């Protein structure tokens, strides 16, 4: 009889622990959701450049961007969608606008705020968001980009050609992707 009682007691402990763990998870999810909503509603300016790490079916969207001296410097890099806020524009509106302008994606699902890093130009700030979509990218700005493509996480991590942009943002995104997809 003691073994049955022990088993019932252990099951109660396990279910209590699972309940506490699920509660903590819900609280963490809730806190992350609040932080995401607050970040998305922040007012931007010309120094805020939100970007979208877009994943679809386990693949990451990346585009081959060609900068010119008048915009930054003469360089071509593989990057992700995003760009500068208009003065007074909230981050969410800027992110959605930039993604639509660059790749034609209008069903962007903004899932999480990954973090924020300094930009390439003095005074710039780059908030990074994890997003998904059901749509495929289109080449909307051929004067800036030569192509958009979906790459596997492994390709994105290992192929050096995809590591040409902001190294702090890149590291933060790699850390995030390592634990989330």
Name a few traits of the molecule.
181 residues, alpha+beta, Nucleoside Triphosphate Pyrophosphohydrolase, 6-stranded mixed sheet, 6 strands
Report what the structure shows.
The chain has one domain (41-180): Nucleoside Triphosphate Pyrophosphohydrolase, CATH 3.90.79. The protein contains four helices and six strands, in the order αβββαβββαα. The chain starts with a helix and ends with a helix. The longest helix has 39 residues, at 2-40. By secondary structure, the chain is an alpha+beta fold. Strands 1, 2, 3, 4, 5 and 6 form a six-stranded mixed beta sheet that branches.
What topology emerges from the helices and strands here?
Layout: H1 2-40, E1 51-56, E2 59-67, E3 75-79, H2 91-103, E4 109-118, E5 125-132, E6 145-152, H3 153-158, H4 167-180
Parallel strand pairs: 1-5
Antiparallel strand pairs: 1-2, 2-3, 2-6, 4-5
Residue runs with pLDDT of under 50 for 5 or more positions: 1-21
End-to-end gap = 46 Å
Total discrete domains: 1
Strand % is: 25-35%
Radius of gyration: 21 Å
Number of strands: 6
Structural class: alpha+beta
Helix content: 25-40%
Biggest β-sheet strands, sense, barrel: 6 strands, mixed
Oligomeric state, counting identical vs distinct chains: single chain
The CATH class label is: Alpha Beta
* CATH fold group: Nucleoside Triphosphate Pyrophosphohydrolase
The number of helices is 4
The chain-level mean pLDDT equals 86
Written as H for each helix and E for each strand, in order along the chain, the element string is: HEEEHEEEHH
- Which CATH architecture is right? Alpha-Beta Complex
CATH superfamily: Nucleoside Triphosphate Pyrophosphohydrolase
Principal-axes shape call:
globular
